[in-house]
Write a structure and sequence with these properties.
- It contains 20 helices and no strands.
- It has helices at residues 16-25, 28-40, 44-72, 76-86, 95-126, 135-147, 149-168, 171-198, 203-211, 220-233, 240-245, 254-282, 291-303, 308-341, 346-366, 381-408, 411-418, 422-448, 455-476, 478-485.
- The longest helix is centred in the C-terminal third of the chain and has 34 residues, at 308-341.
- The radius of gyration is 22 Å and the shape is globular.
- The structure holds 4-fluoro-L-phenylalanine (PFF).
Length: 486
């Protein structure tokens, strides 16, 4: 029995999905986090491990998510319920859809605060507010920016408003239209930044920092960080990719689009490193971590360079656009669900979801000022949102997607959605059944601090576990064999 759902909305253009999904994937994670992690965890060696994580975990799980979305044609909750039902399994599996939707929503509630920093620095650079500042001034400006809830709240509210206006306009008129100019614009600006960095005098140092192959620096911490980042950077298990997949036309190849998005995302992350580090090194600065890199060191470096204001504006425009195209994808699942399942118009759904988002993001924003004392187990609201989503909901959601796709559902569904050659399909199945779950469980164990992992020493054990679970998994269930021969 094939119960293909009829789509209500589809991307209009040939590149609609790829642009929107790349817009979702390319965000603060690429420009802020990836370059720093690369330098920190061993340059080229880390890049290789990261690529392996994208290939072994990111791409297979993303393909499963898109297949869920396209088959079920709806928000994560509805799509998963439909696909699970089609396979004769219990509807409670759609709890994974609820979790994904909530995860995207909660990520957005702290993401808008960081995106707000970017918008406010764009404004400061444009209006000359950073001119002539020293290192200490720069740190003070950042602290003052955060200390004032009205100021910080203004920028995160602006990001929330922009996000809701775009999403409220709909999939084609809002999301597709905005990404179709923002994404090419972003790549052009990034390319300009690299040309600028190439003339900064620090290019070779930047390249060395990013790509020098230091296997010794590659700790198991770096490995697990690479795996966790693969999830975040590809926007997995947060409802974004699944919902965008619901608008993908039937004739498009899921494998090909997934690979395009993963490649584009990785290229942008590497380009961001090439744009940032040469400028930092040319000015004799340390590649500091976290907010300090983009909001203190980099503006300071720009100031010391010719055409620095112009390139500062270009950089923060690019960062703000990257954040915005990710933000819209995080709330699309919620808006789609309110619209389809609750019959609320898109515009109303978007304002409703946006209002709740605003309340939570305001609490997150207050972690930096009036709410700095509101902590639970030593964490602020902002830190809790980050912790719960990236350490808990994303890995758990990814595990659910992989296991549902690998074991639970009728095989014919994925065979027809993915349309791979038998060898490719077997490889995909091996990844979602065994490799991805094992990787995710490792990240989980590590982040909960249950066991201290030392992958360099323990890898033979892990390999043995992988072989064992594969053998048991393939032998144990007669149902699997039946599915395979269906
Ligand atoms: N991929 C985005 C980034 O790298 O910044 C973050 C993200 C977007 C996470 C959308 C989750 C999501 F649903």
């Amino acid at each position: 029995m094939t119960t293909r759902q009829r789509p209500r909305t589809l991307w209009l253009g040939r590149w609609g999905f790829v642009l929107a999904a790349t817009g979702s994937a390319v965000g603060l994670g690429n420009i802020w986090k990836f370059p720093y992690m690369t330098g920190e965890y061993g340059g080229g060696a880390f890049v290789l491990v990261y690529l392996a994580c994208i290939l072994a975990v990111g791409i297979p799980v993303m393909m499963a998510e898109i297949a869920f979305g396209r088959r079920g044609r709806g928000s994560p909750i509805d799509a998963i319920r439909r696909v699970v039902r089609e396979s004769g399994s219990g509807a409670w599996w759609s709890l994974f859809g609820w979790m994904a939707m909530l995860c995207g929503f909660l990520i957005l509630s702290f993401y808008v605060v960081v995106a707000g920093w970017s918008f406010s620095y764009l404004w400061k650079t444009l209006t000359g507010g950073l001119n002539g500042t020293s290192v200490d001034d720069m740190a003070m400006i950042f602290a003052a920016n955060n200390a004032n809830p009205w100021h910080l709240g203004f920028w995160s509210t602006l990001v929330t408003l922009l996000t809701m206006v775009i999403v409220g306009k709909g999939v084609r008129e809002g999301i597709e239209r905005s990404v179709s100019w923002m994404m090419p614009g972003l790549v052009i600006m990034l390319a300009l930044m690299i040309v600028y960095a190439a003339f900064s005098g620090g290019f070779s140092d930047g390249v060395a920092f990013l790509f020098s192959f230091e296997v010794g620096k590659l700790s198991s911490e770096g490995l697990l960080a690479a795996l966790g980042h693969a999830f975040f950077t590809l926007s997995l298990a947060s409802g974004a990719i699944l919902t965008y997949g619901a608008y993908l036309p039937d004739q498009r190849s899921i494998a090909r689009t997934t690979v395009s998005v993963a490649i584009a995302d990785t290229i942008v992350a590497l380009m961001a490193g090439l744009a940032i580090f040469p400028v930092i090194f040319a000015n004799g600065m340390d590649p500091a971590s976290g907010p300090g890199l983009l909001f203190m060191s980099l503006p300071l470096a720009f100031q010391a360079m010719p055409l620095g204001t112009l390139f500062g504006v270009i950089f923060f425009t690019m960062l703000s656009m990257a954040a915005l195209t990710s933000a819209i994808s995080m709330i699309e699942a919620t808006v789609a669900w309110l619209n389809e399942s609750r019959g609320i118009s898109r515009a109303k759904a978007s304002w409703g979801a946006g209002s709740l988002l605003w309340v939570i993001s305001t609490l997150a924003m207050m972690s930096f000022n009036v709410g700095s004392e509101w902590t639970l187990a030593g964490k602020h609201v902002f830190d809790w949102l980050d912790f719960l989503t990236s350490r808990f909901m994303m890995p758990l959601g990814g595990l659910g997607m992989a296991l549902m796709a690998g074991f639970l559902l009728r095989h014919e569904i994925f065979r027809s959605e993915l349309n791979l050659t038998p060898v490719q399909h077997a490889l995909w199945l091996f990844m979602v059944r065994y490799v991805s779950p094992l990787g995710i469980v490792l990240v989980f164990i590590d982040s909960l601090g249950i066991v201290t992992l030392d992958l360099a020493a323990q890898w033979p054990w892990l390999l043995a576990i992988l072989v064992a679970i594969t053998a048991v998994g393939e032998m144990a269930s007669p149902r699997l064999k039946r599915q395979l021969s269906e």
